[in-house]
Write a structure and sequence with these properties.
The protein has 13 helices and 12 strands. It has 371 residues and is α/β, with parallel strands linked by helices. Strands 2-1-3-4-6-5 form a 6-stranded mixed beta sheet, sandwiched between helices. A 6-stranded mixed beta sheet has the order 8-7-9-10-11-12, sandwiched between helices. It is found in: Cell envelope.
Length: 371
């Protein structure tokens, strides 16, 4: 992937992380800092070159598809849904969106509704596909192709679930970048609380990677918190207060598998006398929600999100379904990620509060489809 360094390099942002006391504390810490800085720098730059597919089947006409949204309150899921709707309009398809509303029962009911519509394709958006195993079997028996976003730890075709293509950035790179930023920002001495949700295999994989990366670099994980992402509005205020009482100033950074955890921390932090840029500093390993961009821009209880190109991924999902319907293989495309900070928040879609790469992806997909 070709990338152009922006004028305010993220190295400038991170100068606090290479202060002399850290660099000269020993070769091991200096090397760890250099490694962390290199990862942050790599993913904080502009994305201007298209590195996705350039060939594929023309648009299959007159199709109707269903988006099964795990929970439209989740900014990542909402962003992908919007991208699917935009791409479907461009390719000439009809889209129906059904919200699973954040519960297994809701998603089961949504899948049933989708099957009743007899669509030409289904997008599983933001929940583990294997959770709905009986419905997956029904879809396969009916010959309805399935694509997904964040439906499991495997990127691309998933034979176990029958998904034609699971679309995602590299979740392990996302987690590494988030952990590395926290390590560097803490001058090599982070005290980290990690937030995840064991309902989702990919969430556990991301949290485990962040924990391993912090410990590999020599930082400390204070606590590994498993709390349902669908219940963050109820749980996070009191949980934040309890963690502050337990760890005090030792809690320097939060790492979460999704921005949604930080949507509900601010009031509790403020009540404890914390200003917007005080520790604990919040860093999200996905997905780059609108509220996260707003917090980063305003300096209010979040400094970083490692964003995914949600709208682009919506376009990719439509392209993958078009390939499935046409009887071709998946594209093999792995979408880029972006470390979003106050210094680069205005690039690559930032004014729209989203990571929307300026790499011409819309025109590229339209060209493939003959539109």
């Amino acid at each position: 992937m070709q990338r152009r360094t922006f004028l305010k390099s993220s190295v400038a942002l991170m100068t606090i992380a290479i202060a002399a006391p850290v660099l000269f504390a020993g070769h091991a810490r200096a090397d760890a800092m250099a490694d962390a800085m290199a990862v942050v720098e790599k993913y904080a730059q502009k994305v201007t070159a298209w590195d996705g597919p350039t060939t594929g089947p023309k648009a299959q006409p007159g199709k109707t598809i269903v988006v099964l949204a795990g929970d439209l309150k989740n900014g990542g899921i909402l962003g992908v849904t919007t991208g699917v709707e935009e791409a479907a309009k461009a390719i000439g398809w009809e889209v129906k969106v059904i919200d699973g509303a954040g519960s297994i029962g809701g998603r089961t009911a949504a899948f049933g509704q989708a099957m009743a519509l007899k669509p030409n394709g289904i997008v599983i958006n933001g929940f583990d596909a294997i959770e709905q195993a009986p419905a997956l079997e029904q879809a396969k028996a009916a010959g309805i192709p399935l694509v997904s976003w964040h439906a499991g730890p495997v990127i691309g075709p998933d034979e176990k679930s029958g998904v034609f293509a699971n679309v995602s950035t590299d979740a392990m790179q996302v987690s590494t970048a988030a952990a590395d930023w926290a390590y560097a920002d803490a001058k090599g001495k982070p005290g980290v609380v990690i937030f995840t949700d064991s309902t989702y295999a990919i969430a556990i994989a991301k949290a485990d990677k962040m924990k391993a990366e912090i410990e590999r670099l020599g930082g400390k994980v204070l606590e590994y918190v498993d709390t349902p992402i669908a219940e963050t509005s109820q749980r996070m205020p009191q949980l934040t207060t309890s963690l502050l009482q337990k760890y005090g100033d030792a809690w320097t950074h939060s790492l979460a598998i999704n921005d949604l955890y930080f949507d509900f921390m601010g009031p509790s932090l403020a009540a404890a006398g914390k200003a917007g840029t005080d520790a604990p500093i919040n860093v999200a390993a996905g997905d780059g929600s609108e509220s996260a961009y707003q917090r980063i821009r305003a300096g209010q209880f979040q400094k970083v999100t490692v964003a995914e190109p949600l709208n682009l991924q919506g376009w990719q999902l439509v392209d993958e379904l078009n390939r499935a319907i046409a009887g071709e293989k998946w594209s093999g495309y792995l979408s880029p990620l972006h470390v979003v900070t106050a210094d680069n928040v205005e690039f690559d879609g930032g004014p729209k509060n989203a990571f929307d790469p300026e790499n011409g992806y819309r025109d590229q997909y339209k060209k493939i489809w003959g539109k």
